[in-house]
Amino acid sequence: MAALQQTPISFRSKFPPPVAAVATPARTLSFSSLTRRRVVPALRGGARMSATAAASYAVALADVAKSSQSLDATSADVEKIEKVFSDPQVYDFFANPTIEEEKKRKVVDELAASLGLQPHTANFINILIDARRIDIINDVVTEFEKVYNGLTDTELAVVSSVVKLESQHLAQIAKTVQKLTGAKNVRIKTATDPSLVAGFTVRYGNSGSKLIDMSVKKQLEEIAAQLDLGDIKINV
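Now predict its structure.
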């Protein structure tokens, strides 16, 4: 991997403006016309606004990561952000409009130091705060993963099991998914699901549309079907 650029990167121009800035004349909007076409229609309200804005922020972050030759490192940063903001208390703190932005930025500085975030990743969080769009950060994380996977020809596979699988088992699952998809890389995410009893499931493909089910729960359901017990619900 190429050495990371140490000079802080200024890239506010790549990001959508706060909602209040939409009415500003176009000549004062310094982000690209492509980004503007994506964002301005989305700023008209509803879930569509959040989804489109999140995608635009994600693309902008990926552009900065590519320009600084730190795409993989930025992806690692985004994973850290995802874990931090999965805590409801952390998310509620940043999404709370009554808390001063300066306080939020101080917490971002602390997080950046403790997590070892790159300067442009920390700056990215501050941009969401300034734009009053920190509430969509989880959506941005999801969209960034899609952009990153597309740029690196990476297939995301979510492996669910009752207990944590050994690394060699996860490696074998990754090889299997790679053969099935032809992807250059396979990225594994793990999750726990006690309802599986034992074994595991693997979801991959577009929005997890494809499933490999190696769980005991699935086996029990198949046995029930073979015994013509389809009307009997199996609780596990």
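Residues 89 and 95 are 10 Å apart (CA to CA).
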